[in-house]
Amino acid sequence: MTVETNDASKCELALKGLYFVDDPEIGLNVVDLGLIYQIEFIEEEKKLNTLMTLTSQFCPMGDSIVSNVTDSLQSAFPEWSIQVDLTFEPAWDSSKISPEGQEFLGY
Q: How far, in whole angstroms, is CA 14 from its chain's centroid?
């Protein structure tokens, strides 16, 4: 799955850290799971907005995952304001898992 962004080089830096944020129930990172939909950088305001989803609206680890995503982005961009928003449109499904993630999960 491709992450929408307005700055490819900054997005690459953000994603590097997010590869270390796992969904603890699945054991796979949020990037390879396809949970990150968009990362937008507002340079003049030093603001980073992220739009992501969870594997289900009722994910019991949702708060923890969002907190870990926020912490990872704040670590990569310490001078920036970080905003992480959840959406369930489009709903997540296994087709969003990267080929590496599918291999890891044995698909």
A: 9
Neighbouring-strand partners of residue 52: 36, 86
Tens-digit pLDDT profile for residues 71-87? 999 999 999 999 999 99
Q: Which structural domains are found in the chain, ordered by start?
A: 4-94 (3.30.300.130)
| Helix extents (H) in 4-81 | 8-18, 62-76
Measured from the Cβ of residue 20, the count of other Cβ atoms closer than 10 Å reads 12
Write the pLDDT tens digit of every residue in 8-50: 999 999 999 999 999 999 999 999 999 999 999 999 999 999 9
Helices 62-76 and 8-18, packing angle to 10 deg: 130
CA of 98: how far to CAs of 3, 58, 81, 93, 101, in Å?
12, 23, 28, 12, 5
